[in-house]
Amino acid sequence: MSQHYYSNQPEASHDRRQLEEHLRDQTLKFMSDAGVFSKKGVDYGSKVLIEVMDIPENAEVLDVGCGYGPIGFTAARLAGNGHVTMLDVNSRAVELAKENAKLNGIQNVTILESDLLAAVQGKSFDIILTNPPIRAGKETVHAIFEQAHAHLRDGGVLWIVIQKKQGAPSAKAKLESLFGQVEEVTKDKGYRIFKATKIS
């Protein structure tokens, strides 16, 4: 079986490239490589999420499955007086994200290698963002939702992007079983953005 971007240690030969993306009225530069998600440019689903996510200035944010950093870095720019913790199981993606934080002069981030949310045990957040690894399977995606709920403060929000054809209806049902309030914020080219609010 070939490896996927959610493998811990990608074996794909390196193919480094620099990207420049305009996200949320800001230009960000990224080093990308083979063996990571969306290596040729920020994927459309992440862009849809980035454009609508609401990140307060002082928010404590968690980005689950950060890849080389587009969602987390945009959140860090929006939360100028807050902090963003970024997690990925893929060691190559984590190293790229650390490099890209320096490349863009972003300092209010902590980037960690983590299987799901294991690296943030005992911590809680105002906002959690994820473009979940659909190809890892429904069980993994739903585990992210469950762990996100446990790590959100009361009133905290989980923002998710997911394609309709890749399980958006079942994802929404799972979110509704966990969270007090689930809203479909927008849809664009088959992508759905869900905002799930933790109401105690």
Automatic annotation (TrEMBL):
Xref: Pfam families: MTS
Domain Methyltransferase small: 28-195
Signal peptide: none
GO terms assigned for molecular function: methyltransferase activity
An individual GO BP term: methylation
Record keywords, A-Z: Methyltransferase, Transferase
Protein name (database record): Class I SAM-dependent methyltransferase
